[in-house]
Amino acid sequence: MSRAAERLRTVIHHLDGATATIRAPPTSAQTLTYSPPQKLRYSFDTGTLTPEQRLFYEENGFLLIKNLVSETDIDRFRKEFERICRQEVKVPGLIVMRDVAIAKSEFVPDQRAVSKLQDFQEDPELFRYCALPQILKYVECFTGPNIMAMHTMLINKPPDAGKKTSRHPMHQDLHYFPFRPTDRIVCAWTAMERVTRQNGCLVVLPGTHKGALQEHDYPDWEGGVNKMYHGVRDYDPDHPRLHVEMEKGDTVFFHPLLIHGSGMNQTQGFRKAISCHYASGDCYYIDVRGTTQENIENEVKELAQKKYRMNEVAFKDTWAFRGRLVQGERTSL
Ligand SMILES: CCCC(=O)SCCNC(=O)CCNC(=O)[C@H](O)C(C)(C)COP(=O)(O)OP(=O)(O)OC[C@H]1O[C@@H](n2cnc3c(N)ncnc32)[C@H](O)[C@@H]1OP(=O)(O)O
Ligand SMILES: Nc1ncnc2c1ncn2[C@@H]1O[C@H](COP(=O)(O)OP(=O)(O)OP(=O)(O)O)[C@@H](O)[C@H]1O
Ligand SMILES: O=C(O)CCC(=O)C(=O)O
Ligand SMILES: [Fe+2]
Ligand SMILES: [Mg+2]
Predict the structure, then answer these.
(1) Which residues form a coiled coil (predicted)?
(2) pLDDT tens for residues 5-43?
(3) Higher pLDDT among residues 102 and 235, named by residue
(4) Which of 91, 100, 186, 241 could disulfide-link to 142, CB 3.0 to 4.6 Å?
(5) Pocket of ligand 1 (CB under 6 A)
(6) 255: burial class by Cβ within 10 Å (0-12, 13-18, 19+)?
(7) Which domains, from first to last, does the chain contain?
């Protein structure tokens, strides 16, 4: 038996009970008798992921790829971020967020006032991130060949001002998304510098992607909570959590139901990461009225109405006009 077939058999051995399909290895009939068709529901076999990587994502809901984005590219993203902070470029549709602890302070025209950029799809330099071939190669394993970049962010987590407002409560990103199917959505999150527990790396609850979308709301944290930073209501403090420490350029891909957040930044530096949420172009919009997502729908619509100066904006339209095709065909979204 070939080495690849042997590895696949090991994987399948670990799988019992999972659902959906993994293609049989392209080998002889003899191999097939050893490995009956098995089910992996969260990824496709495109030749990129090893069976072990697919199994890891299946079980844990995330996958860390070391050293995926070059230093040169990251330095260019950082430069562009700085130009935006200095207001040397105007980017249509861009949302500049400030930490709740400094939002009310005097305007400072540099990064110290900015905690997050959202919706940089109209900035060609930052948007290059979303179309990097080495990122899309992995994204395709989760979305399939038609890929839409739906949500773009550059997070500049500030040093905590003493009120723990730099924390991001534990949440599932699907709470924000009115499109499905869930398993054809994935986030790519790239560390723009070394991220550690000290400066507020991502914290994940492995395996929670297998659960349902939970109710989210603002946590009642004493020091305040940033706008739109909803957290899961019934957070289980006993679930094992993992601090995902990463080097500059490392990229984590994660499922939209994976419960994650990030800790306080206890350093003096601004912890930077760039990310994009992708979905299959074949995904479809859903109506979230009457579901747990109604609270975020109302908040986003309110913001969109202010921002685009329109009377009534449908939640799904706020997504339809921000989404950009990065590979294949825009069949639906
Ligand atoms: C309607 C209601 C809706 C809601 O309630 S939504 C709320 C949802 N609930 C939550 O998000 C609660 C869960 N939250 C958390 O797990 C954390 O707060 C969260 C979001 C990950 C933030 O993390 P942090 O605040 O930074 O906490 P942390 O656990 O990372 O650090 C805490 C203490 O650990 C220390 N630490 C740092 N690096 C370490 C290291 N390498 N080894 C060991 N300890 C280390 C760190 O100094 C900190 O110390 P201290 O205990 O605060 O004194
Ligand atoms: N990260 C954030 N979390 C919570 N609220 C935020 C955040 N960023 C901005 N805001 C809020 O968005 C609004 C706009 O902020 P901005 O500082 O531009 O104006 P302002 O503080 O309302 O007005 P002014 O600075 O003229 O007094 C504010 O109400 C601010 O509190
Ligand atoms: O970079 C972080 O701290 C996490 C951000 C995040 O999870 C989000 O914005 O959805
Ligand atoms: Fe998130
Ligand atoms: Mg202000």
Answers:
(1) none
(2) 454 444 444 443 333 334 444 444 444 445 545 689 999
(3) 235
(4) 186
(5) 167, 169-170, 197-198, 203, 217, 219, 231-233, 235, 261, 263-264, 266
(6) buried
(7) 64-327 (2.60.120.620)
